[in-house]
């Protein structure tokens, strides 16, 4: 089990970091996923471990996004009611970008590795999951479907859209 | 639906870059991942020692009791639409998808190891 977790923990961390944009939250997600995996699936055969482990990671990531959405809704509501009389501009626009990217930082992104990471962070979550599980973790379509909890056809669609979108976004950075 | 060859080339290039960045994670971060792994494995061994002292049918009975209670509350509680909306909201923002994962796990246990389900932990 130790050996298995050692082989997947860094890639799981990368996936969580892309999804959250926050190293601390990503670490929490990976630790939580390892705890849950060891508790529930320690006796599973080796060939079933990767899709199961990444399913837990993806569930934790989706859960993180749900919480963020609720938090953002409440923050937007609070800002809106607090400043109602002073400012009628869109409160959402005033929220801090959770990934912490300032325009200066965006402009400073130059090299292809960083550009790739930035482009992956900006993919819609399902496309990001499909791309990372298929192209980075190299799970099969069936394993990815199991990890994402969706149909194989959806995996193929999300994955091909992700690749097309990334190629389009990176055309100025990549040879 | 297989990817066109230029997409496959792109995919390979992207994987190489991602692998590079993963292999070169900062040492401090790698150390924290190792600690997290050890904590997960340690929790498993503690749980196993604790369960060894339990009478064998207890976890199975506790699960059956819990499910029966959940069923009773679901069928007979006088829920109103407003409360249900609150519950839905609560479910949508709940801490983890523990229940879902547990259900999957228990279903798997029942299918694969009906006689040993109380031993797994």
Summed up:
Chain A is mainly α and 175 residues long.
Describe the protein in words.
The complex is a heterodimer of chains A (175) and B (121). Chain A has 175 residues and is an all-alpha fold. The radius of gyration of chain A is 18 Å and the shape is globular. Chain A contains nine helices and no strands. Chain B starts with a helix and ends in a 9-residue tail after the last helix. With 121 residues, chain B is mainly alpha-helical. Chain B folds into two domains: 1-53, no CATH class; 55-121, no CATH class. Chain B is flat and about 55 Å long. In chain B, 75% of the residues lie in helices and 0% in strands. Chain A binds chain B through residues 1-2, 5-6, 9-11, 13-14, 23, 27, 30-32, 34-43, 56, 59-60, 62-63, 66-67, 70, 112-113, 116-117, 135-136, 138, 156-157, 159-160, 163-164, 166-167, 174, and chain B through 1, 3, 6-7, 10-11, 13-15, 17-23, 25, 29-30, 32-33, 36-37, 39-41, 43-44, 47, 92-98, 100-102, 105, 120-121.
Taken in chain order, the helices and strands of chain A follow as HHHHHHHHH
Q: Major sheet of chain B: size, sense and barrel closure?
A: none
Rg over alpha carbons of chain B: 23 Å
Gap between N and C termini of chain B: 40 Å
- DSSP strand content of chain B: under 5%
The total count of strands of chain B amounts to 0
Termini separation of chain A comes to 41 Å
Query: Which oligomeric form is depicted?
Result: heterodimer
Q: Keywords for this structure?
A:
heterodimer, A: 175 residues, mainly alpha, Arc Repressor Mutant, subunit A, 2 domains, B: 121 residues, 5 helices, 0% strand, disordered C terminus
Produce the secondary structure layout.
The complex is a heterodimer of chains A (175) and B (121).
Chain A: H1 2-20, H2 23-41, H3 46-82, H4 91-94, H5 103-108, H6 112-121, H7 125-136, H8 141-148, H9 152-169
Helix pairs in contact in A: 1-2, 1-3, 1-6, 1-7, 2-3, 3-8, 7-8, 7-9, 8-9
Chain B: H1 5-23, H2 27-52, H3 58-76, H4 81-92, H5 98-112
């Amino acid at each position: 089990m130790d050996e298995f977790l050692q082989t997947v923990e860094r890639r799981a961390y990368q996936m969580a970091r892309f999804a959250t944009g926050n190293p601390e939250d990503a670490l929490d997600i990976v630790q939580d996923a390892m705890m849950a995996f060891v508790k529930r699936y320690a006796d599973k055969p080796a060939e079933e471990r990767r899709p199961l482990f990444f399913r837990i990671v993806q569930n934790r990531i989706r859960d993180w996004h749900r919480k963020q959405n609720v938090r953002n809704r409440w923050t937007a509501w609070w800002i809106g009611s607090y400043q109602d009389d002073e400012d009628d501009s869109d409160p959402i626009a005033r929220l801090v970008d959770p990934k912490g990217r300032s325009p200066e930082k965006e402009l400073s992104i130059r090299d292809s590795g960083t550009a790739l990471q930035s482009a992956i962070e900006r993919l819609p979550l399902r496309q990001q999951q499909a791309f990372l599980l298929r192209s980075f973790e190299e799970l099969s379509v069936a394993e990815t479907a199991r990890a994402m909890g969706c149909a194989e056809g959806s995996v193929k669609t999300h994955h091909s859209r992700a690749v097309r979108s990334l190629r389009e976004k990176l055309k100025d950075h990549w040879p | 639906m297989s990817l066109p060859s230029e997409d496959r080339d792109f995919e390979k290039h992207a994987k190489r870059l991602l692998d590079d960045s993963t292999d070169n994670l900062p040492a401090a971060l790698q150390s924290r991942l190792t600690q997290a792994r050890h904590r997960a494995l340690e929790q498993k061994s503690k749980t196993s020692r604790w369960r060894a002292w339990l009478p064998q049918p207890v976890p199975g009975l506790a699960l059956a009791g819990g499910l029966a209670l959940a069923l009773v509350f679901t069928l007979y509680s006088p829920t109103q639409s407003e409360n249900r909306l609150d519950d839905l909201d609560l479910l949508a923002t709940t801490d983890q998808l523990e229940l879902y994962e547990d259900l999957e796990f228990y279903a798997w246990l029942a299918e694969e190891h009906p006689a040993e389900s109380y031993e797994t932990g």
